[in-house]
């Protein structure tokens, strides 16, 4: 593969200010629904960027589990690398890439830990194996082998075989309170359409950005 020859034209209809909702959450919901309707794989997957204590950014994909006017919610191990980063610096960025639709959305915000009640409500809705996996995995920590992980998983199965699986005290979630949104739609000749939402006294200010 010759990387500098890899390219394609973006030939969708583009994006105009008149097509955007004044509220970025409503706009994000609309694009998320459209991505789901055309059955894009993992339409709710978003890349989450955090920064560690040495100023090193890190990214990983998490799944959006709730979206409303209070923000975007995801769940994780509270001892994970991302959680440690957030403990140090609550400012995060997340990114949706719906490439078959030639769309991207970038969101800046502040991540706040969910209450135990909120985390428990979601935890009990997960498949039983997912609940067990939360207990079995010391996320982000080195392990000697996959066999060790599976052995721990089987031990958790036996430990909780008689009833409900409790919420681990090291497992929970975060709500990202957005401070800025950028909606991107691909355009021909690399003349892409970009609109950024920033807070204003009247709600949200919307500006077009050069591609």
Description:
By secondary structure, the chain is an alpha+beta fold. The chain has 5 helices and 9 strands; from the N terminus they run H-E-E-E-E-H-E-E-H-H-H-E-E-E. The longest helix is centred in the first third of the chain and has 14 residues. The chain has a single domain, classed as Roll (Pnp Oxidase, Chain A), CATH 2.30.110. The protein is 25% helix and 35% strand. Strands 1, 2, 3, 4, 5, 6, 7, 8 and 9 form a 9-stranded antiparallel β-sheet that branches. The mean pLDDT is 96. The protein is globular and about 60 Å long. This is Pyridoxine/pyridoxamine 5'-phosphate oxidase. Its EC number is 1.4.3.5. Catalyzes the oxidation of either pyridoxine 5'-phosphate (PNP) or pyridoxamine 5'-phosphate (PMP) into pyridoxal 5'-phosphate (PLP). GO terms for molecular function: FMN binding; pyridoxamine phosphate oxidase activity. It holds the Pfam family PNP_phzG_C.
Topology summary:
Elements: H1 24-37, E1 45-51, E2 57-63, E3 66-68, E4 71-77, H2 81-88, E5 91-98, E6 103-113, H3 116-123, H4 128-136, H5 146-159, E7 171-185, E8 193-200, E9 203-209
Antiparallel strand pairs: 1-2, 1-5, 3-4, 4-7, 5-6, 6-7, 7-8, 8-9
Pathway: Cofactor metabolism; pyridoxal 5'-phosphate salvage; pyridoxal 5'-phosphate from pyridoxine 5'-phosphate: step 1/1; Cofactor metabolism; pyridoxal 5'-phosphate salvage; pyridoxal 5'-phosphate from pyridoxamine 5'-phosphate: step 1/1
Enzyme class: oxidoreductase
Subunit structure: Homodimer.
């Amino acid at each position: 593969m010759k990387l500098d020859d890899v390219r394609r034209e973006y030939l969708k209809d583009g994006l105009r200010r008149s097509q955007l909702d004044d509220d970025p959450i409503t706009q994000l919901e609309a694009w998320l629904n459209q991505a789901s309707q055309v059955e894009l794989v993992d339409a709710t997957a978003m890349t989450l960027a955090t920064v560690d204590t040495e100023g090193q950014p890190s990214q990983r994909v998490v799944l959006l589990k709730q979206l409303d006017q209070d923000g975007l919610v995801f769940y994780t191990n509270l001892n994970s690398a991302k959680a440690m980063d957030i403990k140090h610096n609550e400012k995060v960025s997340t990114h949706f890439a719906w490439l078959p639709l030639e769309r991207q959305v970038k969101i800046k915000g502040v991540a706040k830990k969910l209450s135990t009640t909120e985390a428990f409500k979601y935890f009990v809705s997960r498949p039983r194996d997912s609940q067990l996996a939360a207990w079995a995995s010391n996320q982000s920590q080195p392990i000697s082998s996959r066999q060790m992980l599976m052995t721990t998983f089987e031990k958790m199965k036996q430990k909780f075989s008689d009833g409900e699986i409790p919420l681990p005290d090291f497992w929970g979630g975060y709500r990202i309170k957005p401070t800025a949104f950028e909606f991107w739609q691909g355009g021909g000749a690399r003349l892409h359409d970009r609109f950024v939402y920033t807070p204003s006294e009247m709600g949200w200010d919307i500006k077009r950005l050069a591609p």
